[in-house]
Amino acid sequence: MHPRTPDARAVDDRAPFATKSDLAYTRVRALILSGELEPGAVLPQATLARTIGISTTPLREALRRLRQEGLVSLDAHRDARVAPLDATEARELVELRQHLDPLAASLAATRRSEDELAAIATVLAGLESLSSHPSLDQLEHHRRFHAAIYRAAHNALLTEALDGLWDKSDRYRLHALADERDEADRARSAEEHRLLFEAVRDGDSEAAADVMRRHVAASLGARAAERLTGDQHRDGGPDR
Asked: Is 186 exposed, middle or buried (CB count within 10 Å of its CB: 0-12, 13-18, 19+)?
């Protein structure tokens, strides 16, 4: 990934926010999840607050919320950093998704409406397999495809859980994309997206679950977990 200058104005200014803390939370969270603020980076609180147009007090409240999500670390001196990537967390995210994503796909195949199927097809039509340096729009489009399947499962708790896992996984996807993706890998991903749609369209719950299981196993999140584990072992870190 190429380092970029954080722009706390990246979030749509038209979005309504109940409090200044909510505004700061949304802006800083977007910067972290998009990779604008990289793992381990110091969060320049005064600069961020000034750019957002708030004082440091609501910003600190936002940082405490982000710490609860595991995205920010705060020390005793109130210094803040973006939480580093962690091989164990990466592995655990993949383990959860290997069970929950196939469940969502299976349910979607039997519960989806015609409107929901049309929504999945529309997103699929514009979906591109992610390159090594995807735009934020490409990343969001990838999420919209999976989110459309989650919604079609008609299980609110499952969708909420998967949305949270997706948020946490975004940083790991970007980490995996630091390695170039070859055309075969991108073609495989595109084919799996097509097969997912067809299984959901045909009401084939077993096929939908099977394709999604393979999709998660070969996902960018899984590659990030392998990459981080390898880095940890080379550095002599703990084998947790």
From this structure: middle
Q: Are 179 and 132 a contacting pair, CB within 8 Å?
A: yes
The first and second tokens of residue 150, run together, are 């989650």
Residue 3 has pLDDT above 60, yes or no: no
User: Does the pLDDT of residue 154 top 70, yes or no?
Assistant: yes
Residue 130 · residue 143 · CB < 8 Å: no
Q: In one letter, which amino acid is 73? A: S
Contact 83, 71 (CB under 8 A): yes
Full set of structural domains in the chain with CATH: 20-82 (1.10.10.10), 87-233 (1.20.120.530)
Distance between CA atoms of residues 116 and 110, nearest Å: 12
Please check whether residue 150 is in contact with residue 107, taking contact to mean a CB–CB distance below 8 angstroms. no
21-51 per-position pLDDT tens digit = 999 999 998 888 778 888 999 998 999 999 9
**C-alpha to C-alpha distance for 64 and 82, rounded to whole angstroms:** 12
Q: How many CA atoms lie within 13 A of 15 on its CB side?
A: 14
Instruction: Specify the residue for token string 């749509």.
Output: 12
CA 89 to chain CA mean position, Å: 13
The token duo for 78 is 């109130």
